[in-house]
Write a structure and sequence with these properties.
glutathione binding; 16 helices; four-stranded parallel beta sheet; glutathione biosynthesis; ATP-binding; single chain; seven-stranded antiparallel beta sheet; Dna Ligase, domain 1; GSH-S_sub-bd_sf
Length: 502
């Protein structure tokens, strides 16, 4: 999509920015860019978003888009290779009770379903030190916001129509030849939601029971209901007869039935057979409040239901596995195209672990000398778990430190831009310096017995923007806002327009 200058005048604000913010909030509310309020789950509020798209390099975006299907295949095959998984995870299994529990479950549960469904999100930042995209993490469980990211692109389109004079809109597609012009270009459509639904429908059809259901496992007091229900709505739009249940682990301790003869799982209340279990919970220890919850995970894992993800796929997304893949000749075992392997490797930031006694002190000294140059990441999802700057020094000096539970990643220096962040309760930040993190969604539906790939697709993107003084990056955890990209390379023109005084 592009916003094009008309021949009869330059682009300029049509209304005061306060009016444009009010319009944007109304659009967000009426189009479902919402989440529930923490203390009152009967009420909703807007999901934080940027007022206009952030400038970004089209060539860098297109590059990470082009390698996503290879990344899908890499992580799919890593998840099926117990030898590599065990080698990668071995430093943290003795130290991390959660990873150890998942690993033991994986090894003890016999696989009874050959169909594997994965919905991935591969997160990047552009590193200005080397002018390359660097991978932040590869998400294999609960890859959120596919249901909302498309709304943000449409929101920005509406804001630019409403708020800027002398412009018109067209879509810019990645498969088209890009010609630089004086326009402001946005990438549309963003089909993360539609193609996530198509992948889930394909897996459902391969389960081969049209009367079965799909189970979403969610956290208690779930706030991100609009994102999750958007996926349900999209599936039912394409396949109206599929029905759904949303349950927490604790609810399932009373409601899940496991048939030890057929290995099917059912819901007690309706006796619906479950074809797919889609995890929007289960990625941190707090989601398993007692042993009964762990037993539910075990029943599901050894059942015939298709899991998104399996435990092995969840483990493949651990940070220690990400670090292990940077070693020589690992990814080449799974990606036999030299150019693709090279392109994937080009996205690796410098990373190291602390399990090797021969290099441990060397790496600790690196952190002591330059704590501001690295981030320590544990094998945890959900935001708020990384260590930065002085926190790194405190962890090193702690006699009981568990450095083996972390991997160190060289800190990335992304380009800065100026934008406006719209947040609930009027806590807006106007004209602030920000950085962007780009997520590329991918889906895979495979038969792990035959290696057949029914679907291997790159399906959409997520943009999260945060102020430069914020380290963490989750929207659900309050650190970032949802955004879209202006790839026109017009020197942050939208920022200049929105800074105009009327």
């Amino acid at each position: 999509m592009s916003i094009k200058k008309e021949e009869n005048g330059s682009m300029r604000l049509r209304w005061p920015i306060e009016d444009i913010v009010a319009f944007a909030k109304r659009y967000a509310i009426t189009h479902g860019l919402l989440c529930l309020i923490p203390d009152n789950l009967d009420q909703a509020t807007i999901v934080p978003f940027s007022l206009y798209p952030s400038p970004y390099s089209y060539s860098h975006f297109k590059f990470i888009w082009s390698i996503q299907t290879a990344y899908n295949r890499l992580y799919n095959r890593i998840s099926l290779d117990d030898e590599i998984l065990e080698k990668a995870l071995s430093p943290v299994i003795p130290l991390d009770d959660f990873v150890e529990r998942l690993w033991k479950l994986h090894r003890n549960c016999k696989r009874r379903q050959s169909i594997q469904l994965d919905i991935y999100r591969n997160d990047y930042m552009l590193d200005t030190k080397v002018d390359k995209m660097r991978q932040i993490e590869f998400n294999t469980i609960s890859s959120a916001f596919a249901g909302l990211t498309g709304i943000v692109a449409d929101l920005h389109k509406a804001i630019l129509h409403y708020g800027i004079e002398n412009c018109h809109v067209r879509e810019l597609k990645l498969d088209e030849k890009y010609e630089k012009s004086s326009t402001i270009d946005l990438i549309l459509p963003n089909e993360a939601l539609k193609k996530s639904a198509e992948a889930m429908i394909k897996a459902f059809e391969l389960y081969n029971n049209e009367n079965a259901c799909i189970l979403f496992i969610i956290v208690p007091n779930e706030r991100n209901v609009c994102d999750q229900n958007a996926l349900i709505d999209e599936i039912q739009k394409l396949k109206p007869n599929i029905h759904f249940h949303l349950k927490t682990f604790e609810q399932l301790t009373n409601e899940l039935l496991y048939d030890e003869k057929t290995f099917n799982i059912y819901l007690k209340s309706s006796y619906d057979e479950i074809a797919i279990v889609y995890y929007r919970a289960g990625y941190i220890p707090d989601h398993y409040i007692n042993e009964k919850c762990w037993l539910i995970r075990e029943y599901i894992e050894q059942s015939r239901a298709i899991k998104c993800p399996t435990i092995r796929s969840q483990l493949a997304g651990c940070k220690i596995v990400q670090a292990y893949l940077t070693n020589e000749n690992i990814i080449e075992k799974y990606i036999n195209n030299k150019n693709l392997s090279k392109n994937i490797r080009s996205t690796f930031a410098s990373m190291f672990a602390f399990d090797n006694n021969q290099t441990r002190e060397k790496y600790i000294n690196l952190l002591r000398q330059n704590p501001n140059g690295y981030v320590l990441k544990p094998n945890r999802e959900g935001g708020g778990n990384n260590k930065y700057d002085d926190e790194i020094l405190k962890l090193i000096e702690n006699k009981e430190n568990h450095l083996n539970s972390y991997i160190a990643m060289e800190k990335i220096l992304p380009p800065k831009c100026t934008t406006c962040l719209i947040k609930p309760n009027g806590k807006h930040l106007l004209h602030v310096e920000c950085i962007n993190e780009i997520g590329i969604y991918g889906t895979m539906v495979t038969n792990v017995d035959t290696n057949e790939e029914y679907i291997n697709d790159v399906i959409g993107y997520l943009v999260r923007t945060k102020t430069t003084d914020t380290n963490e990056g989750g929207v659900a955890t309050g650190y970032s806002v949802l955004d879209c990209l202006d790839v026109s390379q017009n020197n942050n023109e939208l920022s200049k327009i929105f800074s105009q005084e009327l």
